[in-house]
Amino acid sequence: MRGLWKPRVLGAWRVPSAGPAILAVNHAHLLDGPLLLSTAPRPVHFLIKKEAFVGPLGSFLRGIGQLGIDRGSADRAAVTGCLQVLERGGVLGIFPEGTRGEGDFAALRSGLAYFALRTGAPVVPVAVLGSADRAGRAVRALPPLRARIDIVYGDPFLAGDGGGRRTRSALDEATTRVQRRLTGHLARARRTTGR
User: Do residues 94 and 111 make contact, with C-beta atoms less than 8 angstroms apart?
Assistant: First the structure.
């Protein structure tokens, strides 16, 4: 990654050095996950759509600890895999929007809040900025070679309200709370990087 683009990592020290953590990453481009995997301060286990787990790529993804998910159904195996990563004190990476989009955290799914409430793991917001820049692309699916891409980590926070509730209303409230924190981090990251 560092040979093809110029990733600049800001605030990686904010990721807890030990214990479970959830990286909540905006997702505007195909390159966001690989960039994070190659620059994160700790190994990250990402939820990745099951369609990516075919052929040699599937073997590679499984070999580096990535988790496949069926986005069209309630995938119990994926949920169990995520909980096991966190219970072992690992780092789970989630694109809380569920798929690539504008990368603005506008439409969050409740999965991230569920894992955070269930395990008590802190959520670390991560903004990847510049991966979706359109100007100067030689290959449409990739940012221009040698382009700067900023990866900005925010302060960890707990998704719950401290009451320990795991009800549907608690999940909805946590999802709203998470979305506010993520959009706030994204705005600060844009101001910091000038993007």
Answer: yes
> Do the beta carbons of residue 178 and residue 123 sit within 8 Å?
yes
Pairing, β 123-129 against β 21-25: parallel
| Locus of tokens 């991230």 | 112
Residue-wise pLDDT tens digits, 48-78? 888 888 888 888 888 888 888 887 777 788 8
Listing DSSP states for 24-80 in one string gives: EE--SSTTHHHHHHHH-SS-EEEEEEGGG-SHHHHHHHHHTT-EEE-TTS--HHHHH
Element (H, E) at 149: strand 148-153
| Digit-coded pLDDT (tens) for 132-182 | 655 555 556 677 778 888 999 999 999 987 776 677 888 888 888 988 999
| DSSP, res 14 | G
Buried b (16+ CB within 10 A) or exposed e, 95-118: bbbbeeeebebeebebbbbbbbbb
